[in-house]
Write a structure and sequence with these properties.
Oligomer: single chain
Helix content: 25-40%
Distance between the termini: 76 Å
CATH architecture of the largest domain: 3-Layer(aba) Sandwich
Number of domains: 2
Largest sheet: 8 strands, mixed
């Protein structure tokens, strides 16, 4: 569209707004000049632009004066979308801001699926996106058709997310996570192969104490790697050389 024609249309819309108020979208919605011709989608990493537009329910006949609240709600219904804000750019564009759900762990359901901090299963191919995330092992059967993990697994995933904010470097060393006893989890490093037994809510200072204990044990007996660092007991760090039976 030529620039002078675009300016004329925008001016007409503003003038109509003064005269018609809230009835402007209804009055202009059928005009071809206001059919959406360009959609800018910002914030995508895992969701494709095409899937985002399809989720909003927008097609070639949709007017820029359509209901943005409805489009936003439809887009938030996609399992990869946490939030969405849509702006009109008159006469024929939309600008869409998307906040995606962020995968923080993999869960065997029994297929391996990413999940976010809320325990929502995400339709992301781990191989395609090369997700380097800890695997949460579980034998639980998930409800058919449910995108949410069971409550106890959601609590475990939430704790993994909290640990990531406490010490991202520590979690990057973790290959597997399993539920522990007494409201705890077991975080297994791949190299060296050591289990960290962690109570929920462990502060960063206590986690660092466990890392210092591991480094000290490796320095004292380089050929004898501890099997576990147990931080479940207040004011204690238990270094286990052999697995408990």
């Amino acid at each position: 569209m030529r620039r002078d024609v675009r300016i004329l249309l925008v001016t007409a819309v503003l003038g109509a707004g003064l005269a018609w108020g809230d009835r402007v979208p209804e009055a202009l919605g059928a005009m071809e000049a206001f059919r959406i011709r360009e959609i800018e989608v910002i914030g995508l990493r895992y969701l494709s632009r095409e899937d985002a537009i399809e989720a909003m329910g927008i097609n070639a006949e949709t007017s820029v004066w359509g209901d943005t609240d409805v489009w936003e709600e439809s887009l938030r219904g996609h399992p990869l979308v946490l939030g969405a804000v849509i702006e009109r750019v008159v006469p024929d564009r939309l600008r869409v801001y998307v906040t995606e759900r962020r995968p923080i762990a993999l869960v065997s359901t029994p297929i391996v699926e990413p999940v976010d901090e809320d325990g929502t299963r995400l339709p992301i191919d781990p191989a395609e996106h090369r997700l380097d995330l800890p695997l949460i092992e579980t034998t639980q059967r998930l409800a058919d058709g449910s995108r949410l993990l069971p409550e106890d697994l959601r609590a475990l995933v939430a704790e993994v997310s909290r640990l990531m904010s406490v010490d991202t470097a520590f979690l990057q060393m973790v290959s597997e996570i399993t539920p522990g006893d007494r409201n705890s989890l077991v975080a297994r490093w791949a190299e060296p192969r050591v289990d960290f037994l962690l109570p929920y809510g462990l502060p960063q200072a206590r986690l660092r104490e466990g890392l210092i204990a591991l480094a000290d044990a490796l320095a004292r007996t380089p050929g004898n790697i501890p099997c576990a660092i147990d931080l479940r007991f207040e004011d204690q760090v238990v270094v286990r050389k052999t697995a408990r039976k």
